[in-house]
Structure formats: C-alpha cells, structure tokens
Amino acid sequence: PVITYAPRDVVTTKGSDVIFSCEVSSYPLASIQWSKEGDVISFPADDSSTAVQ
C-alpha cells in the first residue's frame, strides 16, 4: 500500500470538533484502522465519517 495522504497532527481545545483524513492506494484494497488512546475505533461498513467522543 502507498499512503497518498497521511493524517496530520491537530492541536485543539477540549470539546472542539476535529477531522482526520487519510488516503491509501493499494491492490488488493487496503484496510484502514483508526485508534484513539490505544483503542481501535470501529466504523460501519463503507462509512466514511463518524463522531468519536
């Protein structure tokens, strides 16, 4: 896989919304996994966005 757009660090205040993006090119299709404080964040199939608090 090739990461064509990597997530960037974000500094914000507590309670503010933040968006992280990632883009990968691969064959076969790559699986992207996000985590927060060491815990994996699960997404519904084919969902490109979610809210995590």
TrEMBL record:
Instruction: Show where the Ig-like domain sits.
Output: 1-53
- Report the domain of life of the source organism: Eukaryota
InterPro entries in alphabetical order: Ig-like_dom, Ig-like_dom_sf, Ig-like_fold
Looking up Pfam families in the UniProt record yields: Ig_3 (PF13927)
This protein's name:
Ig-like domain-containing protein
